[in-house]
Amino acid sequence: MDDRRNKQKIGSTSYFMEVVLLVLIFACSHGSPPPDANEAHYLVKAKHYWNPEFGSTDFFLSSADAHLIFYWAFGWLTVLFELPVVAWIGRLLSWLLIGSALASIGRRLVGKRLAGVLLGTVFVVLTEYGHLAGEWVIVGFEAKTISYGLAFWGIRMTLDGKWGYAWILTGCAAAFHVLAGGWIVFCLLIIRGLELSSQRKRPGQTEVCTLLLGGFLALGGLIPGILLSSSDPDTSAQANYLYVHIRLPHHLVITTFATQRIVAFSVLLCGLFMSWKFAARWRTDGSGTVMRLGLTSLLIAGIGILITFWLGDESPRQHQLLRFYFYRTSDVLIPLATGACVCTIIFGVASEKQLGMRLPGSALLLIGVYLGGGLTERYWDPRPRGDVLALPRSKKTDRQARKENTLRIYRHWQLACLWMKNNSPVDAIAITPLRQQTFKWYSERGEVVTRKDMPQDAASLLEWHARREAVYPFVDGVRGLSRVSNDLLAQNCDRYDAEYLVLTQFSKESRQRFDNDSRFVKMFPPEGKFSYYGVFKFVGSR
User: Fold this and answer.
1) Using alpha carbons only, what angle is made at residue 65 by residues 150 and 499, rounded to the nearest 5 degrees?
2) Distance in angstroms (rounded) separating the CA atoms of residues 168 and 175
3) CA distances from 338 to 104, 124, 288 (A)
């Protein structure tokens, strides 16, 4: 009895260490300072939900709330802590959920120590480099990171045949993010249905009850999503088109996907089928479940491809259906299945050849190269990822000079935003540069419109597009405030009650733009100081 307890204790300790190692790996690979790409979107919206005075005049923040469960569960943290602190709390929770699930799945499938670390790390690498439609799992804190953590634990329960727990966990996942969690529920329903059919069995009463409970929990994500649609068919049709073909074709329309992404995903698929074959002699009973999940996600992606080509880009039905992200689940479950096969082969060969931990250890060292690359990249550009993706970077040829100048641009952006925070009314509205996506995060002030912050409800989505076209029209085939005339800027300030403009000042011409225009008064930077960004107050027509 004592020996068994000691083994259990050792097993629990090693599992705990694997989870800690995975969280550290996640932090090394994706632990840039907040805000990440979607944190400035999700967490600012969550803060406004709990404190309506925050960004009260912002168009996006005042639109319908799509992720109510996420706001209820974590939005209150924004009342107690600053946004960067909330982001780190949420990241750690998400990484713990995802890491603990992946570690447990790896240990269950392979039955060896460090299998969970290897599976989790391979999964991170494959989701980053092998995705088809831009669905990443280990990112900043948002609704889908919690959803995926719960969904992975649901998958883990199925490996032990605990379908009741699986339905509850995945129901909660769908509540946090109806599509990220909901598609995995759909995959599990198909797998379970085929399994029961092949065994000529019916689900037990307990499983049926937990399935119904999971479905009830999922309504927390489904109902807010349904309420986003419009009762007017024309409004809904226009909103669907804008959503699919204007704002998010890189996620939703396969004909717009980069060729390198299609090639990378095709290589990943080849790797999956080859590794599945090579792993045949070492596969366990749970391996088939993970593989079937991957294949089911491919079926969903295939339906998305069929809808795209069969209905055509002019079809309102195509626009309506493609909003359901047919490719995001295969971006997640194919890397999971491939990682499981790779781990099975590595530990199987090591056991058969009596190599101990040398082969798995070597594999982990190779993955260290990936982490080293990520840390090196972050050293040369340590800005938050939300700013890396949106703010300009220096074009200097010397690497050190390029880093220093890029950080200078970033600091000037922050200072311009902080000027707004410290010197403008809380209900101030600004027109801001086209590509940035962190103004509200730093300034806590409203914006007329941004490219990133697209509302989810149909009516607001149409208004978003109208604002975007008005504020950032194409001029000579290019969008940007630098190409918009002063008269149009003034008209948009009047039209949208914008008292302030935040503009780039990378050229002498842009810095002297309003010298002879009394409608705009420079507020930042102070006279005699240089900044790549300027804040101007609109004081009215001449």
Assistant:
1) 135
2) 11
3) 16, 12, 12
Pick from 239-253, 333-347, 358-372: least confident: 358-372
Kindly report, residue by residue over 252-262, the tens digit of the pLDDT.
999 999 999 99
Residues 130, 183, 193: CA angle, nearest 5 degrees: 115
pLDDT at 128 over 60: yes
Residue at 115 is within a domain: yes
What three-state secondary structure class fits 188? helix
Q: Could you say which of 314, 336, 356 is where a domain stops?
A: 356
User: Of the residues 356, 375, 399, which one is the last residue of a structural domain?
Assistant: 356
Name residue, tokens 């060969």.
349
Query: Do 465 and 346 fall within a single domain?
Result: no
**Tally of structural domains, the chain:** 2
Flag whether 364 is in a domain. no
Q: What is the pLDDT of residue 304?
A: 97
For the chain, the farthest-separated pair of C-alpha atoms sits apart, in whole angstroms, at: 89
Domain that holds residue 170: 2-30+64-356
List, for residues 442-480, the tens digit of each pLDDT value: 999 999 999 999 999 999 999 999 999 999 999 888 898
- 472 domain residue, yes or no: yes
Q: Where are the alpha helices (DSSP H) in 37-177?
A: 39-50, 68-74, 77-80, 83-110, 115-129, 143-159, 163-176
Are residues 89 and 25 part of one domain? yes
